[in-house]
């Protein structure tokens, strides 16, 4: 939630006067035919002129498209840099401490963003960069736990749990729309920051690095887990990371490069989606939140389905592990790529555009039964460092895509369309 609240809140933080005449594409009666039900009883958002103004707009900042793009991408500058740091820290400190403290720092920064926005947009950029650095530690930390806790036969299904971030997006955007309409954009950050700190308290009570450390797990379950993973994983806390072997490994580079394109597409929807929904499709805040978030709820469901099918294919001996990973990697890349290419050629058919939008986001998650699960397959006891290196490469797409939207395109209406067609 704290990673993506800015993607939506920024739509309400910045004056849209400079973009009020930017749209050359008309979608007749779009709110009347699709989302009139989201207009509130006081008619703060009207169907006739599709205005986005709310009674609780708070202060609006006169930030240019370039500044907005920098704010959106600043999270990912340090996010990429901190991947390797997260891999190293996890090897020595364990997942519980690295993941917990990084989330606490991210939550604290969220609470400070409304105050920093009043100072200068540079202060917001600094806080988002700090959030990005802290959040960059989390993925290597999470992957490091998989080799200790999850048997190979259940690994694909477990990988779908990492799509919890999709649920976070799916809940964050509608929540942001509701909060902005009823309380103002500042309360978006107060809410997500408070939830983040509350989550950290639960994490420190419930999470443990290995089954042996857990005080409430049964002896039978410990025995089952250790018997299932003992042949492929060993205690790695304090183990020296073979970085040269990782840096020169063709399979590692194959995973990193393969997922770069998927990340580019995925973050077009995540980062630029709410802005597209507002400035192109002219949805009000609550409709914007719902339609921006629901594809990611669907993507979580699809990730569970894809990972379940992958496990079944392996257990039934229909396909080898390598073939299963390649199949789902291809599905996650080819299908969304073809679908979103069409978006650049859709002018007035809003229903078709939204259908393609939903389906493309849904198929992206097949990667969690493909290349992303393969990271643990090739290095179960070094999954954290390997993921850190892969993410350093493929997550560069997460800040390049929003940056390019501000540099290449001056007209926000066509920004998303051109970016997806380019890639």
Structural domain tally: 1
**Second rung of CATH, namely the architecture:** Up-down Bundle
Contiguous helical run count: 19
Top CATH class: Mainly Alpha
- Main pleated sheet: none
Q: What is Rg? A: 22 Å
Structural class: mainly alpha
Shape: globular
From N to C, what is the helix and strand string? HHHHHHHHHHHHHHHHHHH
Cα-to-Cα separation, first versus last residue: 27 Å
- Tell me, rounded to a whole number, the average pLDDT: 79
**Total DSSP E strands:** 0
Q: Would you identify the CATH H-level superfamily? A: MFS general substrate transporter like domains
Low-pLDDT regions: 18-57, 409-415
Helix fraction, binned, reads: over 70%
Stated plainly, the CATH topology is called Growth Hormone, Chain: A
Please indicate the percent range of residues in DSSP E strands (runs of 2 or more): under 5%
Which features would summarize this protein structure in a list?
19 helices, Growth Hormone, Chain: A, globular, about 425 residues, mainly alpha
In words, what does this structure look like?
This is (Mediterranean fruit fly) hypothetical protein. One of its GO terms (molecular function) is symporter activity. It is a multi-pass membrane protein. This protein is mainly alpha-helical and 423 residues long. The protein has helices spanning 5-13, 30-34, 65-93, 95-119, 121-136, 138-149, 155-159, 164-182, 186-206, 219-229, 243-247, 250-279, 285-315, 321-343, 350-364, 371-378, 383-394, 396-407, 412-422. The relative contact order is 0.17.
Gist?
With 423 residues, this protein is mainly alpha-helical.
